[in-house]
Each structure stands twice: as structure tokens, then as C-alpha cells.
Amino acid sequence: PSIVFGVFGLGFFIYFIGGGIDKLFFPESLPSPTFGTGGILWASLTLALLTVPVVVVATEEGLSSVPTSIREGAYALGATKFETLWKVVLPQATPGMLTGMILAMARAAGEVAPLMITGVVKLAPSLPLDSHFPFVHLERKFMHLGFHIYDVGFQSPNVEAAIPMVYTTTLVLLFTVLILNLTAILVRNKLRKWYSTTSI
After folding, report:
1. How far is the C-alpha of 113 from the C-alpha of 58, rounded, in Å?
2. Three-state SS string across 102-153, please?
3. pLDDT tens digit string along 157-174?
């Protein structure tokens, strides 16, 4: 369950790693944590862990789909193991690996439970990007469309009045995931055509 990944992210990333970073590099700001609290960095790492099984399975299937005869032919022509892997196996397996990435991206986009534990907020006080050095602040809290749907749809004092906002946010989230998936599919198809023409 995704909530288990959220609890793991809270304990390992936020308390253990983030707390350790605070003790080493930001002792003057304690007891107010800098990295030892929820933020976009820890939430993204938690979602990455959540999607690892999908990516691993798709990668294994993509690599196993390459016929053994192709590898043996590359070896017979004098290619090393690295050259065979890099120039023969990976190009053939890339479309399958990208399919796994598409599925993982679609799953991660809709996950809310891990984010509720690792840093999502109703209203973020500031964006992760600004004009202050280092310009990208991954320790900051963030807003998420999925959490916004939950908050407006179930935590609003006037649920009936919030229904249009819930529908609008849901459509925005769906269109965002759809655009990301279509982009990944187009890239996969382009790579598949390119690899097929170069192999010929």
C-alpha cells in the first residue's frame, strides 16, 4: 500500500537523513528543522521508491524480449559484452523500458497518501523556485492537485459549493497526466522507429 511508503519516507528520509543533515550542516537553526521536515525532495524520493517495482519489472521484460540470437550474432561479429549491451540490447529494449516509465509516471501522478505524510500542504507559503540562492529549494513544502481534490472535496465546510472546484481540479490533473503520457508515448515511438531504421 502507498501509505506504507509514506510512513517509510517519513521515518527514513525525513527523520533519519533529513535530521542528520540538519545536525551536520544546519545546527544553528535547530530545533526548527530545515531538511528534517516534509518537503519536495523527500516526497519525490518516496514516490520514486513507490514506482521502482513497476520500472524494474518493465525493464526486465524489455531486456528479456531481445532475442538471444541477436546477442549471439553481435558476439560472433566480435563485439564485446559492453558493446553488445550498449549498441544492440538497450536500443531494442528501450521501448519496453519506456512503457514501464509511462505506467510509473501515471501511478505516481495520482498518489496522495505518501505525499500527505512527506510534505504536501494546503497552501504553500513559497515556491520551490525563486530568485534567492541556490534558486531551487527542495526542502520546501509544496501543493499537489491530488491533495487539493481531497482537501476541497472532503475537508471543505461547504461541500456542495466546492463541487465545481473538485471537478475542475480533477480535469486539470487528468489532462496533465494525459499530456505527460502522450509525450512519453511519442518519444517511445520515435525511438522505436529510429532504432529500427538504424538497425537496418
Report:
1. 24
2. HHHHHHHHHCCHHHHHHCECCCCCCCCECCCCCCECCCCCECCHHHHHHHHH
3. 887 888 899 999 999 999
The closest alpha carbon to 43, from 74, 20, 9, belongs to: 9
- The x, y and z cell numbers of residue 34, run together, are 530545515
> Count of H helices and E strands in the chain?
9, 0
Name, in order, each residue with C-beta under 8 angstroms of 98's C-beta and a sequence gap of 6 or more: 184, 187, 188, 191
Q: What 3-state DSSP class applies to 1?
A: coil
d(CA 125, CA 146): 18
Contact between 9 and 45 under an 8 Å Cβ cutoff? The reply is yes
Report CA-CA distances (Å) from 29 to 16, 33, 36, 72, 132: 17, 7, 11, 60, 18
- The amino acid occupying position 58 is A
Which residues lie below 8 Å from residue 78, measured CB to CB, with a gap of 6+?
none
**Which tens digit of pLDDT belongs to each residue from 123-147?**
888 888 888 888 888 888 888 888 9
- b/e map of 32-70 (b: 16 or more CB within 10 Å)? ebebbbbbbbbbbbbbeebbeebbeebbeebeeebeeee
Q: How many CB atoms neighbour CB 165 within 10 A?
A: 15
